[in-house]
Amino acid sequence: MPFRKCIGCANVKSRAEMIRIMKLYDTGEIIINPTSRHFGRSSYICYNIECINIILKKKKLQKILKREVPAEIIEYLEKVEQ
Fold this sequence. Notes:
Helices cover about 30% and strands about 30% of the residues. The protein is an alpha+beta fold. It has a single domain (about 5-80), classed as YlxR-like (Hypothetical Cytosolic Protein, Chain: A). A three-stranded antiparallel β-sheet has the order 4-3-5. The relative contact order is 0.22. The mean pLDDT is about 90.
């Protein structure tokens, strides 16, 4: 099983235990938890409240994905942390 690093806390966990946010290569659209058939730039976040707060506060997703993150994605992350 592949492992990935959380962009909030830098802990390494299995890919199945994390939220994957991806910018699609062809359209630039940002999606959450895509299937493995998609190709593009990805970032992984663990389901930890502190990690999500760090990512949102420091705008790490925008920096990593090199694009403004849609409000729906931010709202989804805010709901996950509750």
